[in-house]
Amino acid sequence: MLRKENETEKKEESFFRAAIQKMKQVRRPEKATKKVPRDHTRLIAGTLWTCIGTLLLFCILSVLLSVNTRSAVNDLRNQSSKPAENEKQKMSTTAAENFLSGFITEYINVKNDQDAIEERKKNLESYMVKQTQASFEEGERYNMEGFKGDRQLKDYSLYNVKEGDKGKLFQYKVTYMNLFPVEKEVEKKVKDGKKEKKVKEKVTENEKAEKQVLLNIPVVNKGDVFAVSAVPYFAEIYDLKGSVPASEKEEKRDEYTGDKKEAIESFLNSFFEKYASEKEEEMVYMMKKPEALQGSFVFGEVESAKIFETKKGFEVICAVQFKEKENEIPVNEKFTLEITENSGQYYVNQLNHQ
């Protein structure tokens, strides 16, 4: 009986142990952690305002671009409606002829009287552009020293107009008369008592010589205002049926001072002496494009010459004085010559009037 009770107690005890072990093995379920959702309101608001700002900026840029484009179009329209600057500066030949009519009369007519000479110079200067360093000195432009006799204009007509870099060259066919005193020896009969005898005595008589040459006048304009840009020069009248010969910024250069300077100066004197006296065809051996005054004037002197060395030879800028053959009225001209040398001989490749 006692054994049964002990066995019963052991069974109960083992039951409780097993129950406790089971209970220990049972795990408590972990509590689920709840995540609190973040607040995205600020991010959404920021994105929205950024989009609105970007859209507004694009609208402003579009308006500005439209205004700018419209302004550019208006400018183009205004420019197209206005005449171009070079068109404004186009020279009216008719207006220039009217301007030059007074100049030609003043230039050709010369009276051997000091007051008349001063008045002529003053009147001619009023037609000219303002003096520059490259032009003749004030006193040299219309220097009239040492002449004798008068020159009278008979007729003139426009012969040709040539385009230049800065204006136009008006060429007039002029006819004028040179009046000059000539000293002659004449015989006179004088009474010698009851008889008459012949004696010789010197008298001065005025003679006339008619000439017809081409007067070249360079003209510039600013709208309807005109000016003569350089002293006119004479040339022989050419045939308009023939070929018409086809003129930079003057830069500062050192003049040539080498051992060939004297030879070049000597050549200039010889060249212009022949240029004044020889016929055009006889100048072939001295220049590439022959031209000459053919005895209409006589050579006076090379008043000044600046010589510059170039890759091909020499460039000479010189002021030359010619004179009327009959009454020695001076004619001042300025030339630019391109000269080459071959075995000590000089040759003019190009001659330009300035």
By secondary-structure content and strand pairing, the structural class works out as: alpha+beta
Please compute the radius of gyration using only Cα atoms. 52 Å
- Low-confidence runs of at least 5 consecutive residues: 83-88
Average pLDDT works out at: 81
The CATH architecture of one domain would be Roll
Report the sheet with the most strands, covering strand number, pairing sense and barrel closure.
5 strands, antiparallel
Output the number of helix runs.
6
How much strand? 25-35%
Distance between the termini: 162 Å
- Series of secondary-structure elements, N-terminal to C-terminal: HHHHHEEEEEHEEEE
Shape: elongated
State the total count of DSSP E strands: 9
The CATH topology annotation of one domain reads as Nuclear Transport Factor 2, Chain: A
| CATH domain class of one domain | Alpha Beta
The level of helicity is 25-40%
What do you see in this structure?
The chain has 354 residues and is of the alpha+beta class. 32% of the residues lie in helices and 34% in strands. The strands form two sheets. Strands 1, 2, 3, 4 and 5 form a five-stranded antiparallel β-sheet that branches. Strands 6-7-8-9 form a four-stranded antiparallel β-sheet, with helices on one face. The radius of gyration is 52 Å and the shape is elongated. The N and C termini lie far apart (162 Å). Mean pLDDT is 81; it is low at 83-88.
Essential attributes:
single chain, 354 residues, alpha+beta, Nuclear Transport Factor 2, Chain: A, five-stranded antiparallel beta sheet, four-stranded antiparallel beta sheet, 6 helices
